[in-house]
């Protein structure tokens, strides 16, 4: 599902963020991306949803060579990928329901299907009772649940999460991780960058460690491996 072969990414400021990365991630895997700050984790993730293109090398997602995508094709490509951010990125003047529905409205889904799918994902993240609330009326954990619901409402093949528990307390973080685990058990591939040693060590998923732009460790039931 995700294939990188000898990928280099150099930015215009001269920084080499990735240095010869090769990796395969299969459908349905749950993968943690770990490593020190500035190691290249964010660039690795951005390559998957085509926020950036490799300088050289192959990035192939669901059989699509991302370097060959025309700019007008990128929004269609991203329909199969959900992204969850640390800072939620919710639209503050829209309700919970409207924030999630927006992801379907932009692809011109029918109103009937929008309502059906939004209510399904609200139930999955246990927020049906908060559908008419605004983001500022929610806790941080609830806002992150809305962000997750928005990311999965289009039934993506891949969900990318960039430090999704970074702003949350430990108990809320575990609640959020249970949501991700449920999504993964339904067949969705999860790629998560995190600095949470406790979560990675306890959940025993595949761990890919990146240091200085290179993959230095790839373990099927790995541990975090760094001191926080």
Automatic annotation (TrEMBL):
Transmembrane segments: none annotated. Residues 2-228 form the ABC transporter domain. The keyword Cell membrane applies. SMART domains: AAA. One of its GO terms (cellular component) is plasma membrane. Coiled coil: none annotated. The keyword Glycoprotein does not apply. CDD domains: ABC_FtsE. It is found in: Cell membrane. Keywords: ATP-binding, Cell cycle, Cell division, Cell membrane, Membrane, Nucleotide-binding, Transport. GO terms for molecular function: ATP binding; ATP hydrolysis activity; transmembrane transporter activity. Signal peptide: none annotated. Part of the ABC transporter FtsEX involved in cellular division. Belongs to the ABC transporter superfamily. Homodimer. Forms a membrane-associated complex with FtsX. This is Cell division ATP-binding protein FtsE. It comes from Cerasibacillus quisquiliarum. The gene is ftsE.
